[in-house]
Amino acid sequence: MFFRKKETLGGAEFIIAGLGNPDRKYENTRHNAGFITVDTLADSLDARIDRIKFKSLCTTVTIEGKKVLLLKPSTYMNLSGQAVTEAMSFYKIPPEKTLIILDDISLDVGKLRIRRKGSDGGHNGMKNIIYLSGSDQFPRIKIGVGKKPEQWDLADWVLSTFTKTEQQALETAVKNACDAARLIISGQTDKAMNLYN
User: What's the pLDDT tens digit per position in 114-123?
Assistant: First the structure.
């Protein structure tokens, strides 16, 4: 019988964590903009995010000559920090080299906001990452998912799907977020901010 040697994840110098919820029913929801972006980035590199480790689905890729761990926490949004800090600890990667990609309800669909560090901005996934790591020094790419209409409950809004019109704007934002992530990994955060903020 032929046994294939199990591939390992290898080392990593950076982490890119896209935030979201793991179940199928959440696939195209606003709260999963981070997952959508990391999946798109993986696709562009012919990679599959299919290894189970760090309470996540993950894989390692090379971006701008750097080994990068792509991470999709399986913990559900509010406990994202469990997955992110476990991977950081394993690879001894500091917050400054851990890029978080997340949704932002204060931005219109299609808009990006790139930050070097900062508060959680009311986002529960980011809140948990900051709480468990004890640091707010994470670079982040926030992807606009639209402001909550008055009649909507917040939880229902972030778990709603994008409309057809919004989908086009989202695709552009996701592509720009992938390009911005490459710039951030290559040490050009200022350029990413100038181009996409």
Answer: 999 999 888 9
**Whether this model's pTM surpasses 0.90:** yes
**What single-letter DSSP state applies at residue 98?**
E
Burial class (CB in 10 A: 0-12, 13-18, 19+), 118: middle
Sorted by where each starts, the structural domains of the chain and their CATH numbers stand as 14-196 (3.40.50.1470)
CA pair distance 29, 73, nearest whole angstrom: 16
CA 185, 138, 89, 40 torsion: positive or negative? negative
pLDDT greater than 70 at residue 53: yes
Question: What are the residue numbers of the active site?
Answer: 31
Q: Residues 77-106: what's their mean pLDDT?
A: 95
Q: Where are the beta strands (DSSP E) in 94-190?
A: 98-104, 112-115, 140-144
Confidence band for 4, pLDDT divided at 50, 70 and 90: very low
Q: Which long-range contacts (CB under 8 A, 24 or more apart) does 79-83 make?
A: 79/128, 80/17, 80/19, 80/125, 80/126, 80/128, 80/129, 81/125, 81/128, 81/129, 81/130, 81/131, 81/132, 81/133, 82/55, 82/128, 82/132, 83/17, 83/54, 83/55, 83/56
